[in-house]
Each structure stands twice: as structure tokens, then as C-alpha cells.
Design a protein that fits this description.
single chain, about 200 residues, alpha+beta, Aspartate Aminotransferase, domain 1, 8 helices
């Protein structure tokens, strides 16, 4: 027997009048397609689980959303929608969703992925632009052999932390102090956040 979380009832009741039929429809279809579904509230909106995360829905001021945890595997390229959270874009009525039969098919496909233990692929990190070392730091390193040698041994992420810290300085005096501190710490082989690192 499917269980319904009273927090989801409350979420739907608090939603805008246009959103309630959409959310109720989604909820009913999910329960019909997956009788063993577990519903709850995570991240502030209703989520449905079946052997792991399955799908979720949310309401906003002017639209709703519904999406699958493994949307790319369930829907393929059709899952991409940058206009709204979810797999089907901005929902303003039940008609914006696929027909019930199609929706049930997607839910069952998502269930099969969870049955088979398929995990969601981690998001690929966007490549960061190459690190540009500012001229004043390059000059200061050139004047301190120990710091220059240590700089070459620092990991790219530690170098980036120092460069970004210098770039964030709003006043020339602040930048000068940070530059002096950078040379001192780098010469000692310290990362920018050395004081927070576990020993």
C-alpha cells in the first residue's frame, strides 16, 4: 500500500491554486506507476524514492517542475532544459506534461535503472581557464629565489588560490600586503589556506 507523506499534502496545499492540480496529478501518476514509492520532502520540495532517488516535483510562483534524478538516462537528450528545474520545463498546467501513459513509462524506466543499481553520473567539472600569473607576482617571485622555487612545486590549485586572493584586493595597499604575505608563505612552502589544513 503506497504511503503518502503529510508534509507533501501540506506542500501541495500551500502551493498556488494553478499548481495544485499539477502536483496532485504528478503525485497520483508516480504512485500508480510505482506502488512501492516512498515520498518525502528533501531540499524543501517533494521527492519520490524507490531504491534510491527516483524523481521530484516543485512549485514556484508562476510554474511547477517535475524531474527525474537520472533524467539523461530516462529521457535522453530531451531531458535538457535550461529554462527551469526539472525534466519537462516550466509547467503551468497538467497539459504541459506528457500523457499519463508516457509518464508512467518514464517512471518505470527510472525504477528499472534503480533496480539495476545504475548510479547517476557525476557532473563534469567545467574546465577552468589557464592561470595567468599577474606581473607584480611574477616580479616578486623573480626577486626571491626560495619563493620562486617553492612556487614551481605548488599544485595548480594552490597557485590559483594565491592569484585569486591577490585579484580580490580592492585597494592597492591591500594588494601590496597580500603580495608580501604571498611571497613569505610561498617561500615557507605554505598553501594559501595553510592555517586551516590538518596536520
Amino acid at each position: 500500500m503506497p504511503t503518502r507523506d503529510p508534509r507533501v499534502d501540506a506542500y501541495i496545499a500551500k502551493s498556488a491554486p494553478f499548481a495544485r492540480p499539477i502536483l496532485e496529478h504528478i503525485r497520483d501518476v508516480v504512485h500508480a506507476a510505482c506502488p512501492d514509492v516512498e515520498e518525502g520532502i528533501k531540499w524543501g520540495f517533494p521527492n519520490f524514492g524507490y531504491k534510491g532517488m527516483l524523481c521530484s516535483m516543485a512549485s514556484f510562483k508562476e510554474h511547477c517542475s517535475f524531474g527525474f534524478w537520472q533524467a539523461k538516462l530516462v529521457l535522453g537528450e530531451a531531458a535538457s532544459d535550461e529554462q527551469a528545474m526539472g525534466s519537462f520545463g516550466r509547467l503551468t498546467s497538467v497539459k504541459d506534461l506528457p500523457p499519463k501513459r508516457e509518464l508512467v513509462g518514464y517512471i518505470r524506466k527510472a525504477m528499472k535503472l534503480n533496480d539495476d543499481g545504475v548510479k547517476r553520473a557525476p557532473a563534469k567539472a567545467k574546465p577552468r581557464p589557464p592561470l595567468g600569473v599577474p606581473a607584480d607576482l611574477t616580479a616578486a617571485l623573480a626577486n626571491n629565489r626560495k619563493a620562486a622555487a617553492a612556487w614551481e612545486k605548488l599544485s595548480p590549485s594552490h597557485r590559483r588560490e594565491y592569484v585569486e586572493w591577490l585579484a580580490e584586493a580592492k585597494q592597492p595597499a591591500t594588494r601590496d600586503r597580500r603580495l608580501a604575505t604571498t611571497i613569505e608563505w610561498v617561500a615557507e612552502g605554505k598553501s594559501r589556506t595553510w592555517m586551516y589544513e590538518r596536520k
